[in-house]
Structure formats: C-alpha cells, structure tokens
Amino acid sequence: MQNIISFAEAAKHTKEDDLWLIVNKKVYDITKFVDQHPGGVDTLTGAAGKDGTDDFNSVGHSDSAKKEMEKYYIGELDPNDAEKLKAPLKT
C-alpha cells in the first residue's frame, strides 16, 4: 500500500534540515541530499512547499539524477490536495 501524503503535511517540510519536495505527484524527503545538490540549498528550498514539477523539469535533470531521486521517495501526494498547489499537477 502506498503512503498518501497531504499537501499540508508536505508543506511543513521546507527547511534545509527537513526538506520534502513534490514532483510529478510524488513526495520526496531529500533532507539527506541537500548538501550534495549541485544547484545549492536555495534552489531546493525555493521549490519546497509547492508543486516543484516545473522547477525540476525546467532544469533538464539527467536520467541518473532522476534515478537518484527514487531513493528519497516517501509517498504519493493526496490527489484531493491538487487544487492547493500553485500549478496544476502534471502526470
């Protein structure tokens, strides 16, 4: 069974020492990756607390970067929370 995470819960985790991202309706706890991110902490905290799909896709991440994200996956965004996001969710 997949873990369903509300937008409100995901939006609580926006700090460098507790950072979750929403990308493609999936929620990732990237706290342990923050210091390794080539774009820096500000890039990640700027994408936290909202749908970060456009931010993630606009950079043109490599296939290896996308694969790396898989290990930080913690659940699916609650589909009932889609209207709370700044941009519509992508599939």
UniProtKB/TrEMBL annotation:
Any matching Pfam family: Cyt-b5
Top-level lineage group: Eukaryota
Entry GO CC: membrane
Homology family: Belongs to the cytochrome b5 family.
SMART domains assigned: Cyt-b5
Localization annotation: Membrane
Segments for region (Disordered): 44-63
Cytochrome b5 heme-binding domain: residues covered: 2-78
Keywords: Heme, Iron, Membrane, Metal-binding, Transmembrane
Main location, first listed in the record: membrane
Annotated transmembrane regions: none
InterPro entries cross-referenced by the UniProt entry: Cyt_B5-like_heme/steroid-bd, Cyt_B5-like_heme/steroid_sf, Cytochrome_b5
Record's protein name: Cytochrome b5, putative
Molecular function terms, GO-annotated: heme binding; metal ion binding
